[in-house]
Write a structure and sequence with these properties.
173 residues; mainly alpha; 72% helix; 0% strand
Length: 173
Amino acid sequence: MSTNWRISSFNGALLAAYFIPTWTIVAFKIMISPIHGFYEQPNISMALFVSDYLQLAATGTVRAAWLLALVRLTAVAFFAIFVALVSRPSVRKAGGCDEALGMALGIGSLISFALMVMASHAGEAAALRLHATELLLLLGTAIVLMVEAPAQPQAQPMTRVLALEQPEFLHNR
């Protein structure tokens, strides 16, 4: 069994396994049909908030939907970069993938928090629970990432390097 996985790396990989397919499908539904995709369950809070409080026209609603899809795909891209970096053991052990995970967590938390607030204003209980759950997942991983100490490089065994002038065995002169 391999024990070189850091807790934050493992937790980030689990989050990426959820957010990459879920948010990609949601974003592509918005790209294919902006209004119809915007009024589906994962986006209903923003759709109702935009239509009720901002009172945007149809083109403004489409632009808001595309902006949401773009921001979600940005978070997905950072999760994908994290997965690519975490697949290399040397990068994973040194914690070199933490920046990509941090960006994905920051963007994802911002999206989930904003959508949670919009769901609260719109009165959508199911969307509120969905976005609160996503926000708690992201914040939990961010806390683990901040609390976990950076990996210390393991000491390599010292090998003697002999100069050309030094004899290897002193008693054989």
